[in-house]
Amino acid sequence: MDAFYASVEQRDDPSLRGKPVAVAWRGARSVVCAASYEARVFGVRSAMPAMRAERLCPQLIFVPPDFVRYKAVSRQIREIFARHTDLIEPLSLDEAYLDVTQPKTDLPSATATAQAIRAAIRAETALTASAGVAPNKFLAKIASDWNKPDGLCVIRPHQVEAFLTPLPVGRLPGVGKVMEAKLAALGIATVGELRTHALAELEQRFGRWGRRLHELAQGIDHHAVEPERPTLQISAEDTFEHDLPLDEIEPHIRRLAEKAWAGHLRQHGAGRHARVARTVVLKLKTSDFRTLTRSLTPATRPASAHALADIACALRDRVDASADHRYRLVGVGLSGFIEAEDDAAQGDLFEDHGQP
Q1: Where is each UmuC domain found (predicted)?
Q2: Of the candidates 138, 143, 142, 125, which has an alpha carbon nearest to the alpha carbon of residue 4?
């Protein structure tokens, strides 16, 4: 979807159309959830501190987020997807992969399917979507951003090499600023230059990630669309009204542990057929916006919000508690989910049953 949250707000309030809009609470502690294309002209982007966004665009209009409404529109869009395929892998409220190898309609091609989906979204929601059509997920992802907003980009199999060759390596999934710098040190700035390096050389320098880089440079991605994509992490976080020292954060950790645990129960239930989390994660953001994380995979899985909070507080004690350090955000999360039956089976392997 194109500037999804902001587009929903502009659709529902005609006075916002054609104006720079940020979906965010106004104030020093807020960040931008989404920015309209009119706001992006000024450099406003999602995840940007709201105060910085306002400095970039003094006429910026702030609209508080309404996630209930956004989720309702997202469900409406997913229903459109489901008319065409059952293989839908949602990534967020506004983005998904669709495998249309065996479509539910008689449309002649993936391109025709993408055109039909975009047309239905426009007709039924009065919103626009951009689509990428390609032989695999990573190429489709790049293509979906290619002609935004309201665009369609098709990469046919015989076009893959030519499409990738001039791209900066930073467009490849998983290549962030650090990896980009490492590749630049080898004289690699584009995908085409990456392709000239032998697999053995890349593996020697980067291990298994070197093989992945080699495959991406060739346009290879074997990852399937996963309709039942398991939750990787459930978390709750909060930004404080004022920056706090580490020794004042415990009440907030315990409150957020309650929220995270409630979310875990809603999503995964309880009992032998539930899913359990192996790892507890504590996230902190400093007053200068540095993010710190601490995690622990305990021998005994947390079985309550209280147990989760105790572990998260213990993780806090692993953080440097210098008196001059202040924190603006804290989050508590659960990750590493496995089936409860599998967890019980692993426990059985190490139980003492009285046998030598």
Answers
A1: 1-176
A2: 125
Choosing from 9, 54, 79, 95, the catalytic residue is: 95
Of 59, 7, 13, nearest to 33 by C-alpha is 7
Residues belonging to the binding site for Mg(2+) are: 94
List the alpha helices (DSSP H) in the chain. 4-12, 37-40, 50-56, 67-82, 110-125, 137-144, 160-164, 177-185, 191-195, 199-206, 208-217, 250-268, 305-316, 340-350
The 10 Å CB-count burial string (b at 16+, else e) for 167-184 is eebeebeebeeebbeebe
The answer to whether residue 356 scores a pLDDT higher than 70 is no
Joined together, the tokens standing for residue 348 give 């059985």
Residue 355 has pLDDT above 50, yes or no: no
Predicted pLDDT of residue 59 = 96
Per-residue pLDDT tens over the stretch 24-65: 988 777 889 999 999 999 999 988 899 999 999 999 999 999
Cα distance between residue 229 and residue 63, in whole Å: 32
Q: What is the pLDDT of residues 331-347, one digit of tens each?
A: 999 988 776 544 444 44
Cα dihedral across residues 239, 245, 248, 253: positive or negative: positive
- Alpha carbon distances (Å) from 296 to 270, 279, 303: 22, 6, 15
Read off the tokens for 3. 């500037």
Mean pLDDT of the chain: 88
- Assess whether 258 carries a catalytic annotation: no
What is the DSSP annotation of 21-42?
EEES--STT-B-SEE-HHHHTT
- Dist. CA 166–CA 203, nearest whole Å: 23
**What is the pLDDT at residue 290?**
83
Ordered by where they begin, the domains of the chain are 4-65 (3.40.1170.60), 68-155 (3.30.70.270), 160-217 (1.10.150.20), 233-346 (3.30.1490.100)
Dihedral angle computed from the Cα positions of residues 72, 78, 80 and 85, in that order, rounded to the nearest 10 degrees: -170
Q: Are strands 233-244 and 152-154 parallel, antiparallel or unpaired?
A: unpaired
